[in-house]
Design a protein that fits this description.
Blueprint lengths: L1 H15 L4 H22 L10 H4 L7 E2 H8 L3 H13 L3 E5 L7 E5 L1 H25 L1 H17 L4
Antiparallel strand pairs: 1-3, 2-3
Length: 157
């Protein structure tokens, strides 16, 4: 008897799957990542890992302190250290000691890093244009507005 109840509840869950927000966002995230990666490859960035973008997008024009960067990127300091080492080895970023805090480093974009970010933003714009072309400019603007409201409401920004 218990099995029939569990089976029925499970079937009800399966029926919800196509409309699951988590599923839809996951599919969309995979698509956007794939398209941006493809556009970066087309621009000559062969060895770049899209996961490294989580760090690059949070670097301010004047540089960002390593701890602030980890917090903004929502990754551990250890994970950030690994990404920093890789990006520094590839000359996308540089580091220098903080002027007043000897424990902190300032992470900044190199010329190569700035050029990469310009290309990345252009790739993002192209992908966004594709999506807007599918659902219409107004619906796309509404989608971004709703996502911004959720982000702000959840204190994610």
């Amino acid at each position: 008897m218990m099995s029939a109840t569990i089976d029925a509840r499970y079937e009800a869950c399966l029926a919800k799957r196509p409309d699951s927000l988590a599923r839809l966002i996951n599919l969309f995230k995979k698509d956007i990542d794939l398209r941006i990666t493809q556009k970066l490859l087309e621009r000559g960035y062969k060895n770049f890992k899209l996961g490294d973008m989580v760090l690059l997008v949070h670097i301010d024009a004047q540089g960002t302190i390593n701890n602030d960067l980890a917090r903004k990127a929502r990754i551990s300091k250890q994970a950030m250290s690994k990404v920093v080492k890789n990006l520094e080895a590839d000359n996308y970023i540089g580091t220098r000691k903080h002027d007043t805090d000897n424990r902190a480093s300032i992470i900044f974009l190199t010329e190569k890093g700035k050029e990469f970010m310009i290309n990345a933003y252009e790739a993002v714009d192209e992908v966004q244009d594709l999506y807007a072309g599918i659902i219409g400019e107004e619906a796309f603007t509404q989608l971004k507005t709703i996502l911004k409201q959720l982000t702000a409401g959840l204190n994610l920004s």
